[in-house]
Design a protein that fits this description.
459 residues; alpha+beta; PH-domain like; Protein Transport Mog1p, Chain A; 3 domains; eight-stranded mixed β-sheet; eight-stranded antiparallel β-sheet; 13 helices
Length: 459
Amino acid sequence: MSIDPVILKVISSCIIEEGSGDQLSYFEIVTIKRGGRAKLCYLCLGRHALYLLRINMRGIISNGAIEYDSIDKVVIDPSNNSSLLLILVGATLWKDNRVPLESEGRHSLLARLVIAWQAHYMWKTSTLKYLPIVEYPLDPLQTVGQQTLPSALIQPFKGFIRKVIGDYSVFLREEFRNQPLIDRCNRSTREYCFVDDREIECIIRIEDASPSIITANDIHLKFLAAQERLNTIDRSEAWFNVIRDGAYVKHMNLNDDLASWCGWEFLVKTMTRATACVLLRRECIPPLMDYSQDIIVTVNCPLKMMGKGRFTDEDLATECYIIADSVTSMNDKSTVYCDLLQAKVDALMFPSEAYKWLEARLDVRPSFAVHAKSLIAAVVMLLQKEGLFHDRKVALIANDWINSSDLLRSLGEHVPMNGNVPDMIEELKWASVTGTGNLLKDGVFGGNNEDHEAMRNAW
């Protein structure tokens, strides 16, 4: 599930004719059952139709362009977070006018589909109508000869219940009211508020996801916590006390989430209430590891409740910790679109910190790293040979890399024996398109050897 504009433009060129006016807003790899077999394909949402694109991107499957007008309702299986069924109306070539799908990001897909369907309906009729969504048990899709085990859903602790908030779920005490008192939304934030009979209030705020390259330059959680703390303190309060303020580590991963989490916490008291807050930042969100999202959990308690040991600071902090630790994506699995991710990594579209995490967690690195290291080693050897490392200006530029021997050792086995820098630059140029050339040679994009040679000769 992704809204990456670059990849959407590439996929759009495989589906929509140029100048047609339609644009894609979302794509996801789903499993579709047709002809007794289950196979993978891309599900793409456009302005007026959804498209089922072959996994090799050689056009849409047969009858794979489904207009929103022909979708009557959507059936979802309440026993899992992946199965859904599109019920069609009118004369279609789909068996029983049904399109069975399995989506690991069903929650996100359904939300996007509802928006696209209703927007199309309003555009066509100038009236508002909601897309019917029905819950009913569905048969799981299985490939021939393959048995799939249902994913185990971690149950809440005793005395807690699971609450769904946006694209996430949390564990809340049963004493909290079933429906949020506040469900506020603005352009970039969704906020949910729950209270219990003791007037203890829990507020969960979910910021919109943003590209990692933007978040890398965004405000650090430490300073975001300071800003949140100022917003928590009433300006009319004459006294407040910061009890706790420091980094926080999320302790639970309930669905084997591949994303990276970091956090910050603080506990503050005023004359009227005590507040515990945990700020979480979910980075490198699957499937393309290119988005980040902030989630802020705040628990407020009236100060009168904390007298005589009835509710201590530790109780307040523990209440907030359990909710923050239980924040879980609604997706059952964390699938990575490896080919698309590798293309973005090779295009250097991630911040430097993300590259370190991708290499450590997923063993993903730029395909041309070996060639680049060899080139750097050749340049260092050339500078060393010319004696420029002893030049003061070069020393200032090189900074702590001034020790050429240490640098060559750090490059390891990639040190060239007889490095010719101009030849290596030409080699690196061709290496930068080798991946695309091999795809053309293999026929993935309908190319042949002539296309492969033409690309090579162009360099």
